[in-house]
Amino acid sequence: MLTSHKLSGKHIFITGFLFTAVLGTLSHFFYEWSGNATLIGLFCPVSESAWEHMKLLFFPALLYCLLLKYIWEKESPNIVLPILSGILTGTTFIPILFYTYSGTLGFTVVWIDIAIFYICTGITFVMASNLYHSQSPEVPRGTFQDCKRPPLQKAERFRTFIYGLTLLYAILFFVFTFTHPDLALFQNP
Predict the structure, then answer these.
(1) Straight-line distance from the first to the last Cα atom of the chain, in angstroms, rounded to the nearest whole number
(2) pTM for the structure as a whole
(3) Nearest to 42 by CA among 171, 163, 189, 187
(4) Burial code of 104-129, b = ≥16 C-beta within 10 A, e = fewer?
(5) Other C-beta atoms within 10 Å of 88: how many?
(6) What is the per-residue pLDDT across 63-98, written as a single tens digit (0 to 9) for each?
């Protein structure tokens, strides 16, 4: 283990943002650099669609989450749920922001597309670090104090849902990489 103290939210934000931003940026090109290898295409964008660009955030951030769990498991056993919650939120915001701005303007702008990736990466790790930092001793459910329960403890109620949704996203990324519905989300802009 790296150290015997608990991770800080600031550490999670900075290292997670940098790891995901660098690996996500590079993964934009991995499929082409690999000679269009199918295995690489499962984890990296194979087209310019908004759906495929969600992979730029999802898989690098998921890898970061798994690495953090492995490295800090004893010192910070509750690290996974906050990061997965952030990943799901940030990944979902990519098409929301993309279609909001491109629908408003009527066209796309490359630098805005790139900025959306970095903004959503920031959203991912701000949420993850805030949820992680909000952890406190359990408050009895059904009491007046339950209303003041920190966000992560509220999220704990949805642990299975968050894990399931993360798995569903991964499966859908794999399935829709090469066979996808004829919807705008899966089409090149």
Answers:
(1) 45
(2) 0.84
(3) 171
(4) eeeeeeeeebeebbeebbbbbbbbbb
(5) 20
(6) 999 998 888 777 776 788 999 999 999 999 999 999
